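Hi team,

Below is the intake form for Luciferase-like domain-containing protein from Siminovitchia fordii. Please confirm the fields before the structure is written into the shared record.

FORM ID: S-0412
PROTEIN: Luciferase-like domain-containing protein
ORGANISM: Siminovitchia fordii
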Amino acid sequence: MKLSVIDQSPIACGRTAKEALMESMKLAQEAERLGYKRYWIAEHHDLPGLACSAPEVMLGFIGGQTNSIRIGSGAVLLPHYKPYKVAEVFNMLATLFPDRIDLGIGRAPGGSAEATEALSSHFLQNVWKLPELVDELLTFLNGDFPAQYEYSKLSASPVPKISPTPWILGTSERSAELAAKKGIGYNFGYFMSENDGKEIVQKYIDTFKRFKDGAAPEVIITTSAICAETSDQAHEIARCSIIWGIQREKGQGKNGIPSIQEAAEYRLTVKEQERAAKMEEKLIIGNPKEVKEKILEFREAYKADEVMINTNTFSIADRIRSYRFIASELLSP
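The structure came back. Fields below:
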């Protein structure tokens, strides 16, 4: 069983962004100790309650505080950036931390319209050009320049002995087809999709085999899970994340994830109760045995090679305990 971590570096109510980033480092260290395969950190811009706007900075920090776990971006939002610069950054990380770097690539804006405009004046055009941007990025990473390539004399230095491993992250058929046609791994973000995604993942597998005869597609499915000693405790902890999600949809939640007590006292309208129920349906919640069973069913349903887990809680202790409980059921010898 291969399990990994995707971290959004959430800020708990009453705490600071620096504290959230330090907690992310602790989570990466614990994930390595527990046997998780990789730790990825997300990119968000000007979104209250989320601390990481620059995964490449955190990866340099976390890489120096860990020894073996693969680390990567989940994802670099490529339409904001020039492929050459992204290749330089991740080649440098791969030079510092050999055979440990993943480069997850996404197309989402990762923030508000204002933040998107501040980052890139041509974001929407670059979204449509993503296949070309990915081609350019892969060319710089591989150093395999076709004849007459306009940047053939450039090197995305420093050039590591082992290149970063690219992945496409997405929730649509377009992202699945792009990953398949480029012959790279695909991470379906179930936890942030309105669709269950089984057909999308199958599209990736079928298209990959058609374009890359003899090679094997690689699928990661990302879900949210909260595990505690008892099912009741898990649901109590999960309510913090659910209430925070509802607050953010209303333009609130700027103070971060509410505490268990604050979440319990938060009054929902009838419409919000329906929304909360839908949010809960997307989560894997329960005691260790229940969560183990649900993750195994989830992996089988999606034909996934690996399951990546996102866990947002008010307390870092609850977050780490959740990953520990899951590891004890699925990663223990």
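SUMMARY LINE: The mean pLDDT is 95.

Thanks, M.
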